[in-house]
Structure prediction request, 179 residues.
Amino acid sequence: QSYCHRLQHDMYFLTSTSQLNEQVVDKIVLQLNRVYPQILTNEEAEKFRNPKASLHTRLSDLLKHLQKKGDRHCQEFYRALQINAEQLFNDLPSRKILKTPDPTEIDTDKEQYMLNDRGPVFFLACFSVAAGLALFWYCCNSGTQVIGRARRILGFSPIIIGRHVRNICMLYLEDMTRK
Prediction:
């Protein structure tokens, strides 16, 4: 959305609220006049700072003038508004529209969190179950030579698994070799 369209959308809000007082409007006009690139000439700045005209009229004329000048001028107005009245800038209707997310759009940060919310314990549990099933399948589908190899592997693994678990596995393998 261009800055001119945004300004047109925000015009009623800016001119109707009493939050935008004369001091803030004067600061904005001075900034648009003095800061590079110069948006308002000296004559235009004097016209929009004229205390004889009402604030509503001056502000309406300023916004219409900026819309006629183009998108760059409207963008500089928003920058000046943000610098001089940040709370009002954040409350603009066009800002609220920009902040609301599109319901059809996928939020990648949230999706990444949803995929990784289980943690490392869940991963280790799944990996252990898969490794156990693979070992069981490997031992049961082959001949007795595999059981002997598995027995040797389990015999040298007191570091990997606990002593009680190792003893149970060894008893199971001895029982399988007897059958």
About this structure: The domain at 3-97 is CATH 1.10.533.10 (Death Domain, Fas). The first helix runs from residue 3 to 16. The chain has eleven helices and no strands. Confidence is low (pLDDT under 50) at residues 106-115.
